Amino acid sequence: MPDVLVAGGGPTGLLTAFELERAGLDVLVLERDARPATQSKALGLQPRSVEVLADRGLLAAIEPHVEARLPGGHFSGIPIDYSDLPTPFPYQLGVEQAYVAAAIEARLRTPVQRDAAVTVVEQDAEGVTVTAGGRDYRAGWLVAADGGHSTVRTLLGGAFPGTPARFSLVVADLVLAGNPAGWAKTGTCHPADRGSCYRFRAGGTGWSSPVKSSSGSAGTRPSRPRNYSGG
What's CA 223's distance to the chain center, in Å? Predict the structure, then answer.
């Protein structure tokens, strides 16, 4: 029986499991998806996240997949200039979430249990029983790392106070052929990049979307105002 169950196999759940294992605990991650995600999802790591990954010896496995080092970013849509931060990493790393998750997962002692969506959570004085993927798991503790629409929180009836977000982001994985007219190279890709980086200006909006093209495939970063400096 593991000491801790972690619901959610994204970077947050995986890093939580990694940290708990470093503390000497037995941990099992339960992930609803049958296979690791291959789509872009999140595309950036803030400086503090980079610091933590470097400190834990995880950054080296991620760096070959970095496409850009961005001097600015945002917090909830508020632009941030990283250049004045007291950090050895005064930039945001442009890297797809799938590579970050894979680097952390590769360092776990216990493989992630996949195709294991949590459906039941029962707590008692000695611990917690979780039904996931049709199987029961028993542990002393359960960590809910299953996203903003957490199934675990819903099952436990936990509140999530707040107000709706007022801006929306869209991330898409595309297939591009060649260098379409009207797309200009930005030159912001990492030197080791295998493809090309382009900036597409949406007609009439004044917003732009950096796009990474590599071997015929591309992943877009969310659209931002023209004067926005981060990913």
Answer: 18
